[in-house]
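Case study.
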Amino acid sequence: MIRRLFTLALALALALPAAAETVLIRNARVHTADVAGTLEGSDVLVRDGLIAEVGKALVAADARVLEANGRALTPGLFGGLTALGLEDVSAEIGSVDHAYTPGAVMPAQPLSMRPEFDVAHAYNPASMVIPVQVIEGVTFTLLAPSSMPGGSLVGGLGGLATLDGSSIDLLPASRTLFVALGSGASPLTGNSRAAQFMLLDQAIRETRGALFEGDRLLTLAGRETMAKYLGGGRVLFYVDRAVDIRRTLAFAKKHGMKPVIAGGVEAWQVAAELAAAKVPVLIDPLVNLPGNFDQFGATLENAARLHEAGVRIAFTMSGDSSHMARKLRQAAGNAVANGLPWDAGLAAVTANPAAIFGANDRGRISVGQRADLVLWSGDPLEVTSLADQVWIGGEAQPMTSRQTLLRDRYAPKR
Amino acid sequence: MNLLRIAIVLALAPPLLAAEAPYPSTYQVPASAPVLIRDATVLVGDGSKLEAADVLLRDGRIAAVALDLEVPADARIVEGKGKVLTPGLIDVHSHLGVYASPGMMSHQDGNEMTAPTTPNVWAEHSLNPNDPGFDTARAGGVTSMQILPGSANLIGGRGITVKNVPATTYQAMKFPGAPYGLKMACGENPKRVYGTKGAAPMTNMGNVAGYRKAFLDAQEYVRAQDEFTRKLVAWESNDKKDRGDRPTAPKTDLALDTLAGVLRGEILVHNHCYRADEMATMLDLASEFGFRITAFHHGVEAYKIADLLAAKGTCAALWADWWGFKMEALDGIQENLAFVDAAKDSCAIVHSDSPEGIQRLNQEAAKAMAHGNRAGLEIAPERAIRWLTANAAKAIGVAEKVGTIEVGKQADVVLWNGSPFSVYAKAEQVWIDGALRFDRSDRNSWHQADVMLGMRKEVTP
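After joint prediction, the assembly is written out as follows.
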């Protein structure tokens, strides 16, 4: 028993940052991303890696004091759905681990699904891509398995990573099954989106024990994984076209899944249904051109319209979302420029993604939350503002990356 | 010797022996009433700034720039107080129309990936004006752009410069008098596209061998043409009785004709090139064959050779923050633009290469400015605006026509709701050649590309 307690204590100690000091951040413009809204001239006390107090004129004898001088303080930012720590250089297959694509290396494989493919096993917290994002305020991300050519419409399992450079484990409550639907995934399903629901239906029947004469889609482990997510698990569907989103909602409801919509280019057209079903949506607010025939409803007002209808939104970059995770803040600013209230813009990269993915320990500045914080030189959503200091779990992050080292090496001599 | 005749012969010789350049521009400056923009902060584009200045647009030109201009009786007044007027933004690197939205298979018209050297193809012959990206770019204040072939090939073909006006033919967008550009590409793209097929080039040294072969052929072609011109002039001036047969013109070759244009300095070289060492190699290649590289594009390592670029008079058209998507983009830093700009006689440019990026070139510049300032460079907005106006105009050979707010220039101007160097900035009104082409306040006036019509049906339960 003593031994077990010791193990527990050790586990707790390991869970907290090693060198988290007690810090009093004084006189900040505190954007809580919480019901408290923005607190002018407020202090935040960080102790043991957590936010210990928020208020005016706080006193803590043991704390190092940092004068914010009215600068903005926000929760650490969400990096979106990324492959941070799963890829270093996108075009170099040897440095990329976010997709299981046996069909790409061995053509003519029978169609299969591997929902048990789990990117957690590939995550490298020491990837050089991560500090580049951290020093711009990104402190957590959702590692997303991809459905790529040679893979499956069921991409596998993802989850939330804390970008402190050492934590390996993904947040247990954040685990999510990824499914790609629509035009982009159509080549994975015999070139019809109709086959996507057909194949998902087959996988569900297999999971529930139905026997098939032909090729099975799932392995035993795959069926176990599917079973978990059919019982109220979080399933993220990449889907853009309005009518496909409606079908996805019905499908998820029928099979007991807790859906998250990602992509959602035309989500504003079905905003009322999404709000009624309390289904959150992750969008790239910069998408306003049709990439294909699923996206003709693309508009810069997607975020504002979804928010107005009561849908919980979060942001993610399309394209190179890993290297450009730091651009999510700019995307949020653009959503605000196109009608989204500022507080909702901040929430879409802090509190909302944390809540959507079951991370109740972060995303807001309130007592008891992890001290994942960013002190900004100006308006956090403004392109000319930069992060002055980032804390993760109360630990001040070194504000360096290989990019700042290159900067310092090649700075013009004056 | 008949001087007039010689002049005619010389004029007719290069290129294509045509009296008029083929595929001519049909762009027309529309008639528009004079416009007086009053009391605006003017970022001139030449590095200077005017406060509370008035700018008069008349007959498609900038007619006056001054404090307290007298209001012409026939002018429409636009209140600019609290707003910022800039030259129309110019993107030197776009693929709008050659990779039109929606991005379907049939819209992949930017890369003639059938041979590594295709100077014979012209981007304008792929340019589909029915691309909604032109409209969204205009709403971002972009009034001109150069549209280039892609970077699959060592020599990808000719680019085209257009005015960003709604049109049903590319000729109606073609910027009158703008020179052609030639797209060249270094590095990973050509060697990947061909090397993976087991064809040349497979390596960077294969790339360079490919350029050299092409320009050696072009030198030979130019020599043959010059020789013919000399013979023709001699023949024309000889006595008609005993001068023999008229010299035969060498066969026109579309590919070599474009490269000959480069060697003669008539076509500007725009070179996709990421790494510093590769850019230095390309500058040597240009010296070897006696041409200039007008601009490197993408140049994520341009900051490593900022002084060399400035010394060679070569512009660098860059992103604010793209990096890491391939090995040659690994060393991208957000101070790239600012460091390149800091060299004496530099020519730093913000470019997009993206239908999203072209909509917010101002934000890209703002990010680069902020990072430069944090690195201690003290870059003011009036300096940074050059990156997307005057410097860009210089790189595509239209600096005499656009790129600054100066009397006599074409009236391409943008009125912003405040500083354009902000995520909240909006282009309120965009004039091209004095005609109001975008007015944010009148939603019904926004041009929609044909392809968008009838597509945006709402799905309701």
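Observations recorded in class. Residues 1-18 of chain A have pLDDT under 50 and may be disordered. The domain at 1-76+364-414 of chain A is CATH 2.30.40.10 (Urease, subunit C; domain 1). We will return to this complex in the next lecture.
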